[in-house]
Write a structure and sequence with these properties.
Layout lengths: L6 H17 L3 H15 L5 E7 L5 E6 L2 H13 L3 H8 L3 E3 L9 H6 L7 E9 L2 E10 L7 H23 L4 H28 L3 H13 L5 H16 L4
Helix pairs in contact: 1-2, 1-6, 2-6, 7-8, 7-9
Length: 242
Protein backbone atom coordinates (compact mmCIF):
# COMPACT_ATOMS: atom_id res chain seq x y z
CA UNK A 1 0.00 0.00 0.00
CA UNK A 2 1.33 3.46 -0.88
CA UNK A 3 2.14 5.59 2.13
CA UNK A 4 -0.04 8.71 2.22
CA UNK A 5 1.16 11.51 4.47
CA UNK A 6 -1.67 13.40 6.22
CA UNK A 7 -1.49 17.17 5.81
CA UNK A 8 -0.50 17.70 9.44
CA UNK A 9 2.35 15.19 9.13
CA UNK A 10 3.43 16.79 5.84
CA UNK A 11 3.48 20.21 7.49
CA UNK A 12 5.61 18.92 10.36
CA UNK A 13 8.01 17.14 7.97
CA UNK A 14 8.30 20.29 5.84
CA UNK A 15 8.99 22.45 8.90
CA UNK A 16 11.62 20.00 10.15
CA UNK A 17 13.42 19.90 6.80
CA UNK A 18 13.37 23.69 6.49
CA UNK A 19 14.89 23.89 9.94
CA UNK A 20 17.63 21.45 9.00
CA UNK A 21 18.49 23.43 5.89
CA UNK A 22 18.56 26.74 7.74
CA UNK A 23 20.82 25.47 10.52
CA UNK A 24 23.25 23.54 8.30
CA UNK A 25 26.68 25.13 8.20
CA UNK A 26 27.74 23.61 4.90
CA UNK A 27 25.99 22.89 1.62
CA UNK A 28 26.90 19.21 1.60
CA UNK A 29 25.67 18.91 5.18
CA UNK A 30 22.37 20.54 4.22
CA UNK A 31 21.88 18.16 1.28
CA UNK A 32 22.70 15.16 3.46
CA UNK A 33 20.27 16.28 6.13
CA UNK A 34 17.60 16.92 3.53
CA UNK A 35 18.07 13.40 2.17
CA UNK A 36 17.74 12.01 5.69
CA UNK A 37 14.62 14.08 6.29
CA UNK A 38 13.03 12.90 3.06
CA UNK A 39 13.87 9.29 3.92
CA UNK A 40 12.28 9.61 7.37
CA UNK A 41 9.15 11.24 5.94
CA UNK A 42 8.26 8.23 3.80
CA UNK A 43 8.16 4.92 5.73
CA UNK A 44 8.84 1.95 3.49
CA UNK A 45 11.69 3.68 1.69
CA UNK A 46 15.10 2.01 1.57
CA UNK A 47 17.05 5.12 0.64
CA UNK A 48 16.97 8.74 -0.47
CA UNK A 49 19.48 11.07 -2.08
CA UNK A 50 20.23 14.16 -4.14
CA UNK A 51 21.57 14.28 -7.69
CA UNK A 52 23.24 17.41 -9.04
CA UNK A 53 23.99 18.08 -12.71
CA UNK A 54 26.85 20.13 -14.08
CA UNK A 55 26.72 22.30 -17.21
CA UNK A 56 27.49 19.29 -19.40
CA UNK A 57 24.59 17.34 -17.89
CA UNK A 58 26.83 14.97 -15.92
CA UNK A 59 25.12 13.66 -12.82
CA UNK A 60 26.66 13.14 -9.39
CA UNK A 61 25.36 12.22 -5.95
CA UNK A 62 26.61 14.56 -3.20
CA UNK A 63 24.14 13.17 -0.65
CA UNK A 64 22.68 9.72 -0.01
CA UNK A 65 21.27 7.86 2.99
CA UNK A 66 22.55 4.45 1.92
CA UNK A 67 25.35 3.04 -0.27
CA UNK A 68 22.63 1.44 -2.39
CA UNK A 69 21.51 4.91 -3.49
CA UNK A 70 25.02 5.67 -4.75
CA UNK A 71 25.15 2.38 -6.64
CA UNK A 72 21.74 2.84 -8.26
CA UNK A 73 22.59 6.44 -9.17
CA UNK A 74 25.97 5.52 -10.59
CA UNK A 75 24.27 3.01 -12.89
CA UNK A 76 22.01 5.77 -14.19
CA UNK A 77 24.95 8.08 -14.86
CA UNK A 78 26.90 5.39 -16.70
CA UNK A 79 23.98 4.29 -18.87
CA UNK A 80 22.76 7.88 -19.33
CA UNK A 81 19.20 6.78 -18.67
CA UNK A 82 16.91 6.35 -15.70
CA UNK A 83 14.35 8.27 -13.63
CA UNK A 84 16.72 11.05 -12.53
CA UNK A 85 17.86 11.78 -16.08
CA UNK A 86 14.26 11.84 -17.28
CA UNK A 87 13.16 14.09 -14.39
CA UNK A 88 15.90 16.53 -15.37
CA UNK A 89 15.13 16.43 -19.10
CA UNK A 90 11.35 16.73 -18.76
CA UNK A 91 11.45 18.92 -15.62
CA UNK A 92 8.66 16.77 -14.25
CA UNK A 93 8.38 14.28 -11.41
CA UNK A 94 9.01 10.66 -12.38
CA UNK A 95 7.03 7.97 -10.52
CA UNK A 96 7.82 4.27 -10.89
CA UNK A 97 5.30 1.84 -9.42
CA UNK A 98 7.42 -1.21 -10.24
CA UNK A 99 10.89 -1.08 -11.80
CA UNK A 100 10.54 -4.70 -12.90
CA UNK A 101 7.64 -3.90 -15.24
CA UNK A 102 8.57 -0.37 -16.32
CA UNK A 103 9.95 -0.30 -19.87
CA UNK A 104 10.97 3.37 -20.14
CA UNK A 105 14.67 2.67 -19.49
CA UNK A 106 15.41 -0.92 -20.65
CA UNK A 107 19.15 -0.87 -19.88
CA UNK A 108 18.73 0.64 -16.41
CA UNK A 109 15.74 -1.60 -15.61
CA UNK A 110 17.77 -4.67 -16.55
CA UNK A 111 20.67 -3.48 -14.39
CA UNK A 112 18.31 -3.16 -11.41
CA UNK A 113 17.35 -6.85 -11.53
CA UNK A 114 19.96 -7.68 -8.89
CA UNK A 115 19.24 -4.69 -6.64
CA UNK A 116 16.46 -4.19 -4.08
CA UNK A 117 14.87 -1.29 -5.97
CA UNK A 118 11.26 -1.58 -7.11
CA UNK A 119 9.50 1.75 -6.41
CA UNK A 120 11.00 5.16 -7.20
CA UNK A 121 10.10 8.84 -7.09
CA UNK A 122 12.47 11.38 -8.62
CA UNK A 123 11.58 15.07 -8.35
CA UNK A 124 13.40 17.82 -10.29
CA UNK A 125 14.89 20.64 -8.22
CA UNK A 126 13.76 23.65 -10.20
CA UNK A 127 15.11 27.20 -10.00
CA UNK A 128 12.77 29.03 -12.34
CA UNK A 129 13.10 27.16 -15.63
CA UNK A 130 16.49 25.65 -14.74
CA UNK A 131 16.78 22.15 -13.29
CA UNK A 132 19.66 22.04 -10.80
CA UNK A 133 19.26 18.37 -9.97
CA UNK A 134 16.82 15.87 -8.50
CA UNK A 135 15.82 14.47 -5.13
CA UNK A 136 14.73 10.83 -5.08
CA UNK A 137 13.53 8.05 -2.82
CA UNK A 138 13.76 4.32 -3.43
CA UNK A 139 11.83 1.38 -2.02
CA UNK A 140 12.54 -2.35 -2.20
CA UNK A 141 8.83 -3.14 -2.59
CA UNK A 142 6.63 -2.50 -5.64
CA UNK A 143 3.66 -0.16 -5.26
CA UNK A 144 5.12 1.73 -2.30
CA UNK A 145 4.46 5.12 -3.89
CA UNK A 146 1.57 6.63 -5.84
CA UNK A 147 0.54 10.05 -7.17
CA UNK A 148 -0.37 11.25 -3.68
CA UNK A 149 3.08 10.29 -2.40
CA UNK A 150 4.67 12.06 -5.36
CA UNK A 151 2.68 15.22 -4.60
CA UNK A 152 3.81 15.13 -0.97
CA UNK A 153 7.43 14.56 -2.02
CA UNK A 154 7.24 17.56 -4.36
CA UNK A 155 6.20 19.71 -1.39
CA UNK A 156 9.26 18.53 0.53
CA UNK A 157 11.58 19.09 -2.43
CA UNK A 158 10.74 22.79 -2.71
CA UNK A 159 13.05 23.88 0.18
CA UNK A 160 15.99 22.02 -1.36
CA UNK A 161 15.46 23.72 -4.72
CA UNK A 162 15.28 27.09 -2.96
CA UNK A 163 18.48 26.31 -1.05
CA UNK A 164 20.42 25.44 -4.19
CA UNK A 165 19.07 28.44 -6.05
CA UNK A 166 20.12 30.77 -3.23
CA UNK A 167 23.57 29.21 -3.14
CA UNK A 168 24.05 29.74 -6.86
CA UNK A 169 22.90 33.35 -6.78
CA UNK A 170 24.55 34.34 -3.52
CA UNK A 171 27.81 36.20 -3.11
CA UNK A 172 29.66 32.93 -2.58
CA UNK A 173 28.73 30.71 -5.55
CA UNK A 174 31.96 28.78 -5.02
CA UNK A 175 30.18 26.88 -2.22
CA UNK A 176 27.89 25.22 -4.76
CA UNK A 177 30.74 24.54 -7.16
CA UNK A 178 32.76 23.01 -4.35
CA UNK A 179 29.98 20.57 -3.51
CA UNK A 180 29.49 19.62 -7.15
CA UNK A 181 33.22 19.19 -7.69
CA UNK A 182 33.46 17.01 -4.58
CA UNK A 183 30.56 14.89 -5.80
CA UNK A 184 32.14 14.42 -9.21
CA UNK A 185 35.43 13.53 -7.53
CA UNK A 186 33.57 10.97 -5.43
CA UNK A 187 32.01 9.55 -8.57
CA UNK A 188 35.45 9.29 -10.19
CA UNK A 189 36.77 7.46 -7.10
CA UNK A 190 33.93 4.94 -7.30
CA UNK A 191 34.62 4.34 -10.98
CA UNK A 192 38.36 3.85 -10.35
CA UNK A 193 37.78 1.51 -7.41
CA UNK A 194 35.28 -0.44 -9.47
CA UNK A 195 37.85 -0.83 -12.25
CA UNK A 196 40.49 -2.02 -9.79
CA UNK A 197 38.17 -4.70 -8.39
CA UNK A 198 37.25 -5.80 -11.91
CA UNK A 199 40.89 -6.20 -12.88
CA UNK A 200 42.02 -7.69 -9.59
CA UNK A 201 39.24 -10.27 -9.19
CA UNK A 202 37.95 -10.70 -12.74
CA UNK A 203 34.57 -9.22 -11.83
CA UNK A 204 31.93 -7.80 -14.11
CA UNK A 205 31.09 -4.09 -13.72
CA UNK A 206 27.91 -4.92 -11.81
CA UNK A 207 29.65 -7.44 -9.56
CA UNK A 208 32.38 -4.92 -8.77
CA UNK A 209 29.76 -2.34 -7.75
CA UNK A 210 28.02 -4.99 -5.65
CA UNK A 211 31.31 -5.67 -3.88
CA UNK A 212 31.76 -1.97 -3.15
CA UNK A 213 28.22 -1.92 -1.78
CA UNK A 214 28.98 -4.91 0.43
CA UNK A 215 32.15 -3.30 1.75
CA UNK A 216 30.30 -0.07 2.51
CA UNK A 217 27.52 -1.85 4.39
CA UNK A 218 29.91 -3.88 6.52
CA UNK A 219 32.13 -0.92 7.33
CA UNK A 220 31.73 2.20 9.41
CA UNK A 221 33.39 4.17 6.62
CA UNK A 222 31.44 5.81 3.76
CA UNK A 223 31.80 4.36 0.28
CA UNK A 224 34.00 7.25 -0.86
CA UNK A 225 36.51 6.51 1.90
CA UNK A 226 36.54 2.80 1.00
CA UNK A 227 37.14 3.62 -2.66
CA UNK A 228 39.96 6.01 -1.75
CA UNK A 229 41.59 3.29 0.34
CA UNK A 230 41.35 0.73 -2.49
CA UNK A 231 42.96 3.21 -4.89
CA UNK A 232 45.70 4.10 -2.39
CA UNK A 233 46.55 0.45 -1.72
CA UNK A 234 46.78 -0.24 -5.44
CA UNK A 235 49.03 2.77 -5.92
CA UNK A 236 51.30 1.69 -3.04
CA UNK A 237 51.45 -1.83 -4.43
CA UNK A 238 52.44 -0.51 -7.85
CA UNK A 239 55.20 1.52 -6.21
CA UNK A 240 56.58 -1.51 -4.46
CA UNK A 241 55.08 -0.60 -1.10
CA UNK A 242 57.06 2.63 -0.89
Amino acid sequence: MPHEIPLNELTLALARIKGLLLTAEKVDQALQQFSAGAFDAFPGSTGAGVTLFDEQGRGSSPAATDPLVLLVDETQYKLEQGPCSTARETKRTVLIHDVATDNRWPLWTRAMDSHPVRSVISVPLMAGTCCLGTIKIYSAQPGTYDETTAWAFERLAAPAALLLDNIQTSETPRRFSKVLTAALTSRDSINRAQGILMERHGLSPDSALQELLRLARTSTEPMTAICTEIIARTRNSSNGGK
